[in-house]
Specification:
CATH class of the largest domain: Alpha Beta
Helix content: 25-40%
Order of helices and strands: EEHHHHHHHEEEEEEHHEH
CATH topology of the largest domain: FdhE-like fold
Mean pLDDT: 88
CATH superfamily of the largest domain: FdhE-like domain
Radius of gyration: 19 Å
Distance between the termini: 25 Å
Strand content: 5-15%
Number of helices: 10
Largest sheet: 9 strands, mixed
Length: about 325
């Protein structure tokens, strides 16, 4: 892949919060997000070398869609939610989470749904091993994966663990929608759960032209000023590198921290989905890595191989 720098908005042009009625925090409707994601995976799987992987991801998204409404909601304290959002603290924080009844419910609902689908034989075998694994081991790996301690997690289990954690948090944050206006700040991490973004997206429609960071875990989206690194927030100019200037997916690259986060333009494909299009654009990651940039976003359905894995392969 050939990447080329594209000059974007100059620093100082758009670096503050919007002065109109643009919402700073948009909470997801899980069923709509997952339905659209499954359809996008299916569409993307019709072309390219990642066909089998993207077809499997479509099956994962369908299992998530069926499972999400089966999880019981744990009511959140209204005052804590409002005060947390107001003061920049995530009301559904991943910090200190222990796998309990929510994990048990989501694990059962997701694995049963996924097992009903016509999975490729390798995926079917891994799923069977995953389902029969020691409960305590699985819960510990879920906690490790949530905290991005990926060296302790089996790579082949990561898509299942990530999918289950997404279901838990997407269900959890559903009850926060009425409180979204309480959020008035700016954050590099999700203001709802504290997770890293998967990518940013410049929206169309009611949010036309505004960039939002999309949470890798709970699917919440929060406003992010353009022309600013979402990792180190340097005031210096950042560049976009991609296959072409018109590509849906670009890498927004910072020469201060040498990090990058993908940015997607919904106007270039209204049916895009941040998680699906992130996985389908692995060539962008490879190209930016070759240019010396490190990814700052996270996709819960894919875990990068550890150095130990690379040596053993």
């Amino acid at each position: 892949m050939t990447v080329s720098a594209v000059k974007i908005i100059q620093p100082g042009e758009i670096q503050g919060l919007p002065d109109d009625e643009t919402p700073l925090l948009v909470l997801p409707l899980a069923s709509e997000v997952l339905k659209g994601r499954a359809a996008r995976f299916e569409e993307l799987s019709k072309k390219g070398v990642l066909k089998d992987w993207l077809e499997f991801c479509a099956q994962v998204a369908k299992a998530q869609l069926e499972a999400v409404d089966q999880i019981k909601l744990t009511p959140l304290d209204e005052n804590i939610v409002i005060e947390s959002l107001k003061h920049g603290m995530p009301p559904a924080s991943i910090g200190g989470w222990k796998a309990g009844n929510d994990w048990v419910d989501a694990f059962k609902a997701f694995t049963e749904s996924l097992a009903k689908q016509d999975l490729p034989l390798p995926a079917k075998k891994v799923l069977e091993l995953f389902k029969s694994a020691d409960v305590t081991t699985l819960q510990q790996q879920a906690q490790d994966y949530l905290q991005a301690d990926e060296s302790k997690v089996k790579a082949e289990w990561a898509p299942f663990i990530g999918a289950i954690l997404q279901v838990i948090w997407m269900r959890k944050v559903a009850q926060l929608a009425p409180y979204a206006p309480s959020y008035k700040g700016r954050s590099t991490l999700c203001p709802v759960c504290g997770s890293h973004p998967v990518a940013s997206v410049v929206r169309v429609g009611a949010h036309d032209g505004h960039r939002y960071l999309a949470c890798s875990l709970c699917a919440s989206e929060w406003y992010a000023a353009r022309a600013r690194c979402t990792n180190c927030e340097t005031p210096k100019e950042v560049s976009m590198l991609g296959e072409t200037k018109e590509s849906l997916v670009q890498g927004e690259c910072c020469d201060d921290c040498h990090g990058y986060l993908k940015i997607m333009y919904q106007s270039r494909d209204p049916m895009m989905d941040v998680v699906a299009d992130d996985l389908a654009s692995i060539q962008v990651d490879l190209g930016l890595s070759a240019e010396g940039y490190q990814r700052t976003g996270r996709n819960m359905l894919l875990m990068a191989a550890s150095e130990t894995d690379k040596k053993d392969s």
